[in-house]
Sequence to fold (218 residues):
Amino acid sequence: MGHLQITPSILNADFANLGAEVARIPGADWVHVDVMDNHFVPNLTFGPTMVEALARSTDTPLDAHLMIEDPDREAVVYAEAGCGSVTFHVEAARAPVRLARELRAHGARASMALRPATPIEPYEELLPELDMVLLMTVEPGFGGQKFLDLVLPKIRRARALMDKHGVETWLQVDGGVSLETIGRCAEAGADVFVAGSAVYSADDPDAMVAALRETAQA
Ligand code: DX5
Ligand code: ZN
Fold:
């Protein structure tokens, strides 16, 4: 397994002070930004203008997670806004191969997310087109939900498919990741870990990032 990466989500940070909130986690590999449109998920966050401002405010690369209904039309805007990685949901994408290629052409890492009940097997052939697969370990929409253990076998199967195809695709988990659950995810084969409330409810968020990394590596 290569280098494990921690990508804190700012969803549960103070939205009135996002620049300062990101500055509290200098040890993060990426900053995970959850874009929600109130249609794909029943929650609304922010759009490309805010993401672009955030990208300008930090040297840490942004990892955009688009929980939106029309990624085919809108995802590339987040690459143009300066995100180093852009994740679209396969349940929403009409042409995931074309979309992944467009994202790469715009200089971003192309990533595809699956809700907890969406199987990975139908998308096996897409793996070479993708820089990362995100397996949701809660239903997307809100921070602070309980980790779904039922996704662990899918993490294992996704890792096995990546090994079979010999691809360098990263495997990210998002939802309910904490000191208690990160070890199970790493053991199953995940190598990129989103953590929202675990990081931003900690007294020292950057120390929590380090602790999560250490626990995942153990
Ligand atoms: C949920 C978002 C997550 C969220 C995770 O739909 O995609 O990134 O911020 O929050 P926690 O870590 O609290 O489950
Ligand atoms: Zn997310």
The chain has a mean pLDDT of 97.
